[in-house]
Amino acid sequence: MAETTVTLTHKDFASDQDIRWCPGCGDYSILTNVQRVMPDLGVPRENFVFVSGIGCSSRFPYYMNTYGFHTIHGRAPAFATGIKCANPDLSVWIVTGDGDGLSIGGNHLLHTIRRNLDLQILLFNNRVYGLTKGQYSPTSRVGMTTKSTPDGSIDYPVDPIAFALGSGATFVARTVDVDAPHLQQILRRAYAHKGTSFIEILQNCPVYNDNEFIEVEDRKQRVNASLKLQDGEPLVFGPESDRKGIRIEDGVPSVVQLSNGQDPIEAGVAIHNERHDTPAYAFALASLTRPNFPVPVGVFRAVDKPSYETMLAAQVTHAIAHKGEGDLQALLESSETWIVEA
Amino acid sequence: MSEKPTEEIQHVAIRFTGDSGDGMQLTGMKFTESTALAGNDLSTLPDFPAEIRAPAGTLAGVSGFQIHFSSEKIRTPADYPDVLVSFNPAALKANIGDLRPGGMVIVNVDAFTRKALARAGYEADPLPELRDRYRLVEVPLTRLNREALKDLNLSARDTDRCKNFFALGMMFWLYHRGMESTERWLASKFKGDVLEANLRVLKAGYAFGETTELFPVSYIVPKAKIEPGHYRNITGNTALAWGIIGAAVQLRQPVFLAAYPITPASDILHEVSRYRHFGVKTFQAEDEIAAMCAAIGASFAGALAVCTTSGPGFVLKQEALGLAVIAELPVVVVDVQRAGPSTGMPTKTEQGDLLLALSGRNSDCPVPVLAAATPGDCFYTVIEAFQLAVKYMTPVVVLSDSYLASSSEPWLIPDVSQLRQEAVEFRTDPEGFQPFERNPDSLARPWAIPGTPNLEHRIGGLSKQEVTGNVDYDPQNNQRMNDLRHEKIERIAADLPPLEVMGPDQGDLLLVGWGGTHGAITSAAEDARSDGLPVSNIHLRHLNPFPSNLGEILVRFDKVLIPELNRGQLAQLIRARFLVDAKSLSKLEGQPFRVAEIRARIDSLLAGEN
Ligand code: SF4
User: Each residue of A247-256: pLDDT tens digit?
Assistant: First the structure.
């Protein structure tokens, strides 16, 4: 199918449009890393579609030299659903934010994840509304002062990972805007997963919520403040000299201090498993938050389930196989009819 | 064969009424089928209770089905029934007021118990008083039905549930209808004792009609002289669903239908979902907004996309529809209008969404609007909507209504090979491609779908630069793009056939109608003309743009009357656009117009009243 036989590079995925994010915005790094991953996925460029809603992150499709659709606030998952159902061969990527995806678009995010369409959802979480200039978002911390909450926010935040797990996501991951190798690795995993892949990308908004994730972005701090999830490996974090692990008992996580050279498994540290049948373990991981716990980054859950668009296409194929290709004349003449003679 | 005398009549309207559990819709439909096969012209109107589970025996739970059939051409289900069949006191009470004076009332006299009378709100038995005013036929339906089934091993409940088929058999005898189509249907639907029971009571009812002294004569309605051809009976919703499938066949591109369940449009989703072997994909979305968005997404990806909904859902789709306008993507939205505002009366009809369809979006956001005239016309209207959508790269709104959706008429089955075949053309040539370059005639932009090499481009809701489609906030560019979108829709008028005036070409009074009131308005105008009155009428199938000769027709008449099931929305448009003093005849009862209501207004206008 693809006429493009030359090998593409990340430059082939950059559009000719000027990028309009603020200087220092975490979105730049995400864009660069997405463009770097694209050429390796083995997908002809014309088969990529980026779909977004409204917000800073939703400008993303304009900067990708692929097919793109910048839609309306919160509804990108619904547009993407139509695109994927109409043509399952397309590689569909949704770009959304914490406001777009979890506030106005929460309903569509829930249902798209639940249906398990084979597409990728990149949720840029900066815990603030950027495009409308700095109001608190559904992921903002309680107490955050903004223009719309001069006395501090009294909204309890929603956790994107727990939301995705609760919606029945088959692939859930978290990564960080500035951690290029990790971000690229997660993007590749997400593409490879057949079904809805949900990625929360912690993203800095230097203008309205600077340093919200500094502990996991900063190379020094993140050794203690983040936990890299690796399938089959114990949940261990911290520097070699001060290693700690996460134990999960009755679904309740706790931190265990490991002595020098101690085997974490013997110390009761949980071993990461992306493929538990139930999401209970992944929910326990999602509950790990600062300051008492490190922030987990990596794949929380990856399980297999048939995707919506393949089942939909299969129903069509099955119907044609069993009833034959539809005959409109026969349909119009079905059941009781009569002839009026001239 | 009956030994009793027969009487030939030209037309009759029968209304079957009962509790919503009595199977009145089914009874009506089976009677309709047989009537169609008997060669009469016909028109039907079901009347459903608004509540799904209203208490049995109450007025709120009454369900009705009216059929009007004739040996002449007819266009409406009739203003008033000539015959009322009532299965219980509540059904009688809710409907007797509509019965033509001196008409026939057939009641299940067994259901007129003291308890049932009280539940219907009758203080005394109404039957004695009815005997003087109507031809009252008191049939012990429950007893006769039980008697016919007494040796079968059915529960009392299952036995009583058959009594509508006893009544149906009796009505078949009374109007000389054949039972074969109903027998075939029963055999395809049931088996064992239930099949046996229904077949038996159907025949028993027929035999009862033949022998009872309650019916001294039976009636013959001769075949109508209708255009020769192959016919079927069809409701608006079925015609619409088949039109959607027909569009896929004609434009040779798969359909993607996205919908959220809503009365009275859900049946279209149900019907289309049955035909996956036509390559149709249907998607029940999480809400009305998602359905619209998914359809637009599917259109971007190259499908023939359609959404079916009703007023409260249509409102929710407007923001996304605006995106389809600025992104210039083809998508069809069907609004089966119902009585509002808000949740209103979900099962009742209205034409209240015209202005919403034309201008319910933020800013100036033009979309073509079409309205179906009759149940069968829903088929052609939706196909035309798809053709316009892909030719002009625009969303198109189709207005139907609750009356068209559920009423039925005989429909001349089209020869599919004679319908216009036109495969959709996608842009594939990358040479000089610009997402918003325009066809010089239609002003449509190219449809370039994902998966096509070297046509990668981005579209969205932000203001677009002419030709390139890049985001652009230049004031003059915004003016030009608004002008182009407007002009594009206006150019559709050149594709439309000129309006035909029925009746004199000019003169005293012109009736202007649109949508499902076509039958009532045309009948009223014909009726007036046959009385020698100078009345003409036109019907608008296209509400945006209007056919190009509308203005010149309007000025040829002294008076213009616009009957609508809203507060005068088209009248307002016509007055504003053509500066004519159009009068509005408005009705907001959730019911279609009666021919007599329109006729009365014709008479008063011609008599010089204002
Ligand atoms: S407002 Fe914040 S999120 Fe938006 S572009 Fe600027 S820095 Fe980035």
Answer: 999 999 999 9
How many Cα atoms sit within 13 Å of B137 on the Cβ side? Answer: 24
DSSP 8-state code for residue A63: G
CB contact under 8 A, B245 and A331: yes
End-to-end Cα spacing for chain B: 57
Contact flag A67-B456 (C-beta cutoff 8 Å): yes
A174, β-bridge pairs = A200, A298
Ligand 1 contact via A207 beta carbon (within 6 Å): yes
In DSSP terms, B262 is beta-bridged to none
What domains are there in chain B, each with its CATH number?
A: 6-220 (3.40.920.10), 232-416 (3.40.50.970), 507-606 (3.40.50.920)
Ligand 1 lined by A133 (C-beta under 6 Å): no
Whole-angstrom CA distances from A152 to A2, A134, A149 are 54, 13, 5
Say what the pLDDT of residue B421 is: 80
If asked whether residues A264 and A278 sit together in one domain, one would say no
**Full residue range of the structural domain in which residue A262 is found:** 234-271
Q: Tell me which of A108, A328, A329, A341 to substitute to probe the interface with B (most B C-beta atoms closer than 10 Å).
A: A328
Residues A172, A41 share a domain: yes
The residue to mutate among A208, A210, A212, A213, having the most atoms of ligand 1 within 8 angstroms of its beta carbon, is A208
Q: Specify whether A148 is located in the same domain as A69.
A: yes
| Eight-state DSSP code of residue B316 | H
Residues A245 and A179 in one domain: no
- pLDDT bracket for residue A5 (50, 70, 90): low
Residue B397 — φ and ψ, nearest 5°? -100, 135
- Atom index in ligand 1 nearest the CA of residue A22 equals 6
> Contacts of residue A2 in chain B, CB cutoff 8 Å?
453
B289–A79 CB contact, under 8 Å: no
Q: Is residue A208 lining ligand 1, measured as CB closer than 6 Å? A: yes
The residues near A254 (Cβ < 8 Å, ≥ 6 apart) are: A246, A247, A248
What is the least distance, in Å, from the CA of B62 to any CA of chain A? 28
What confidence tens digit (pLDDT) does each residue in B457-476 have?
999 999 999 999 999 999 99
Torsion-angle region of B252 (φ positive above 0: left; ψ -120 to 50: alpha; else: beta)? left
Report the nearest atom of ligand 1 relative to the CA of A133: 1
At residue A146, does pLDDT exceed 80? yes
User: Which position has the token pair 């009761």?
Assistant: A268
The answer to whether the beta carbons of residues B587 and B597 sit under 8 Å apart is yes
